[in-house]
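User:
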Amino acid sequence: MSGQGSRAVLIDFEGIDGSGKGTQARRLCERLAAERVSCALISFPRYGETLFGKAVGEFLNGRFGALDQVHPFLVSLLFAGDRFESKGLLEQALLNNQVVVLDRYVPSNIAHQASKCPAGERGELVERILKIEHELYGMPRADLVLLLDLPVERAQELIALKAKRDYTDRAADIQEADARYLAGVREVYHGMARNEPGWRRIDCATSERLLSIDEVHAAIWNAVAPRLPTLARSVPS
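Assistant: Predicted structure:
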């Protein structure tokens, strides 16, 4: 942990648009602060803070064309570039805190871009994204990835309730508005959650209802606390 010769624990929130990543990332930071654990929250893309982040916002607002008009590899470079511009910010946060919480990270780039490719072409794109982000750009890997899983129809209901965002003048950006696209992203996320180490899937709905923010947070806390020795006592036995 920070202050003991090692970097902070890096926790990444993933999930399709509308799954509550931002809300739950903030809630986790509030809980950690209440437990006297120093933490920082970084949300990607950083639309107003980086050159690439601004370009991501323009893409999501439809400036460069529809989803199927821009090759996913080229789109992946925008998201990766936004993180590379933010590398110093992330490294400083890892030095100064015990926990760093991310609202979207490298797996988001993989899920969103690979979902646009035919199954036979996904592997090559995933390898390229991982090489760029983790090898060429040297972005650290997350210690724990929390996948907030929500059916697409539920997610789009929540998207419709979102307040206006700075990067788009639309009620839903070009990704959020496409249910078929979101279903593909969710499928890729499920594959990563099954096959990648360090992932935990958090169900945000049952077959009957959407779970409350408190219920989802409780499941998240049960996944996070055992990763932090000073917090293990907080998990119900």
